[in-house]
Write a structure and sequence with these properties.
157 residues; mainly beta; six-stranded antiparallel sheet; five-stranded antiparallel sheet; 11 strands; 34% strand; flagellum; cell projection
Length: 157
Amino acid sequence: RMEGFGHYALPTGTEYRGSLWDGMFHGQGELLSPGGGGYRALWVRGVPTQGKFAFADGLEYDEEKWRYCDGYDRRFYTEICSGFKPPGIPQFTNLDPPKIIPEGCYDCGDGFYNPKTRVVVDYKHKFLRNADNDEHEWILRTCRKGWDVTTEHKLKP
């Protein structure tokens, strides 16, 4: 079995880097997600005992003091770090500029969703999953859509 410091790639693309003992995560180690971000923890026989999750943009999750998008402060993390854009220049996502959504699809946070095929692909257009009915309804209700009708500003006569 694996022991010492090592790297372990999971079939999902997630990678563990850290101490191993008897084939288990044991000691300091980090799970790195393929989309960025990761979970750094102290592991005991495969179970995390102390840890912190950091998103791809550097925002760290804190279970006790979590204030990000809590209803009182709706700024994106990039706005918290860099400030607001000038008036009239909206910021629709934490990424700036946001991903360009294919026509008729939705940006569901970890990729694009096509409601006709009910397939979610990552931002490089690789298959992620098929959406069930609950996810389908949630995406249609809450996520940004790649408009199928172009809108333009028309001057008033």
